[in-house]
Amino acid sequence: MSDIVAKYQSVPTTCISDTMQGLHNMDSSIKPLKEEYHLAGRAFTVKMPVGDNLAVLKAIREAQPGDVLVIDAKGDTYRAIAGDFIVGLAKTLGIQGIVVDGVIRDIVGIKQLDFPVFCKGTTVAASGKAGWGELNVPISCGGTSVQPGDIIVGDADGVVVIPQAQEEEILQQALDKLMKDQEREASVSGNPEAVRAYLDKFLASSAGK
């Protein structure tokens, strides 16, 4: 994992989203299977037809350790892009996690793997393997564009995409916002008078906007 990706591991998606004005968030239906998952890594993109996951298997074989598989499954919620066996293969090869605009199956087994999976839900139906699909091409996932190599960050609140060309600038701005948020929280926590003063100041500055 590169230094910059490691630094993103400690930044909440909310701070990153605020820094980017909310422009690169995936749809809120894409959630982690476990709330404690925090995912950060570079996107290895997968474009697959609805119901055909052979491209996912190819991606698992070709992706580098630390990559995040970002899968455009067209939002399909009938056929799973993978079950616990395939997800286990990804974990064994060092893939950082899976983000999919679609669904998985074998949810109990996948949770036992303790491997970050972000998806729209679960289903019982498997995919076919006719062989179509494309790897490491620009895709849309959860309503936002993803380029190969973009940094993907996910946590309990959802998934954000950091464009590769802006990753340094966005990281610094997000870290600055995180520090300010923490300082603000510390200044008012458990102090009713400080809370009232903060609200008065905020409401006064917002008046007439």
UniProtKB/TrEMBL annotation:
<dbReference type="GO" id="GO:0008948">
    <property type="term" value="F:oxaloacetate decarboxylase activity"/>
</dbReference>
<comment type="subunit">
    <text>Homotrimer.</text>
</comment>
<dbReference type="Pfam" id="PF03737">
    <property type="entry name" value="RraA-like"/>
</dbReference>
<feature type="binding site">
    <location>
        <position position="105"/>
    </location>
    <ligand>
        <name>substrate</name>
    </ligand>
</feature>
<comment type="function">
    <text>Catalyzes the aldol cleavage of 4-hydroxy-4-methyl-2-oxoglutarate (HMG) into 2 molecules of pyruvate. Also contains a secondary oxaloacetate (OAA) decarboxylase activity due to the common pyruvate enolate transition state formed following C-C bond cleavage in the retro-aldol and decarboxylation reactions.</text>
</comment>
<feature type="binding site">
    <location>
        <begin position="83"/>
        <end position="86"/>
    </location>
    <ligand>
        <name>substrate</name>
    </ligand>
</feature>
<dbReference type="InterPro" id="IPR036704">
    <property type="entry name" value="RraA/RraA-like_sf"/>
</dbReference>
<comment type="similarity">
    <text>Belongs to the class II aldolase/RraA-like family.</text>
</comment>
<keyword id="KW-0479">Metal-binding</keyword>
<dbReference type="GO" id="GO:0047443">
    <property type="term" value="F:4-hydroxy-4-methyl-2-oxoglutarate aldolase activity"/>
</dbReference>
<dbReference type="GO" id="GO:0046872">
    <property type="term" value="F:metal ion binding"/>
</dbReference>
<keyword id="KW-0460">Magnesium</keyword>
<feature type="binding site">
    <location>
        <position position="106"/>
    </location>
    <ligand>
        <name>Mg(2+)</name>
    </ligand>
</feature>
<protein>
    <recommendedName>
        <fullName>Putative 4-hydroxy-4-methyl-2-oxoglutarate aldolase</fullName>
        <ecNumber>4.1.1.112</ecNumber>
        <ecNumber>4.1.3.17</ecNumber>
    </recommendedName>
</protein>
<dbReference type="InterPro" id="IPR005493">
    <property type="entry name" value="RraA/RraA-like"/>
</dbReference>
